[in-house]
Amino acid sequence: MTLSYCYARAPYNFNALLVGLVYIPNSVTYLIASVFGGRFNDYLLKKKKEKYGIIAPEARFGINVYVAAILLPGSLFIIGWCLDYGEHWVTPLIGTALFGFAQMIVIGVTITYLADSLPGRGATGIALSNFVRQIMASGCSFAAVPLIKAMGVGPLLSMCAGICIVLALLIYVLKMKGDHWRETYDLEHLYDIVDS
């Protein structure tokens, strides 16, 4: 919504076709990250299995996730403030390319982590994750334009970057405590709640 709204207005004044084309950079990096990110994730798991013998699902949180945790807020700053200051139309698209790459890394790791963490119930976990993500995305779609008008695109995406930074810290907590939580909590009880 941010790209559609900002590129259709001054100083860019793109028509509908050109607004559609601004989604190419992040789409290309989605493709790159989904192909190479999955292979790199498998490589990390293989290395950890060689080193430790067995691996927990949290082994998926390696350098790939840490790079994505840096790129996501950084890309939001680039997009937001370049659009806010009316920089050359290509400059925000560099941010969208970085955002697409980082987002696909996170999505790929999340899906495989859920499948590994919920043996026999991975599809349910993935479906629930996608449901929540899509509900939040639809809400954000409705809120984006009023928030841009109220705050400006730079401050809005800076706020989103701050949220990404806080959520990235939760990944570290999950990496440190995930194995303990799986052993301590009765997941079968939670499975029964989800299934009913």
Indicate the topology:
Layout: H1 2-7, H2 16-21, H3 24-52, H4 63-84, H5 90-117, H6 122-151, H7 153-184, H8 187-195
Helix pairs in contact: 3-5, 4-5, 4-7, 5-6, 6-7
Short overview:
This protein is mainly alpha-helical.
Residue runs with pLDDT of under 50 for 5 or more positions: none
Order of helices and strands: HHHHHHHH
Structural class, by secondary structure, is mainly alpha
Q: Name the CATH architecture.
A: Up-down Bundle
Q: What percent of residues are in strands?
A: under 5%
For this structure, the CATH topology is Growth Hormone, Chain: A
CATH C-level name: Mainly Alpha
Shape by Cα distribution: elongated
Describe the overall structure.
The chain is mainly α. The protein has a single domain (2-195), classed as Up-down Bundle (Growth Hormone, Chain: A). Helices cover 83% and strands 0% of the residues. It has eight helices and no strands. It has helices at residues 2-7, 16-21, 24-52, 63-84, 90-117, 122-151, 153-184, 187-195. Helix 3 (24-52) runs parallel beside helix 5 (90-117) and helix 4 packs antiparallel against helix 7 (153-184). The longest helix is centred in the C-terminal third of the chain and has 32 residues, at 153-184. The radius of gyration is 19 Å and the shape is elongated.
What descriptors fit this protein?
0% strand; elongated; single chain; Growth Hormone, Chain: A; mainly alpha; 196 residues
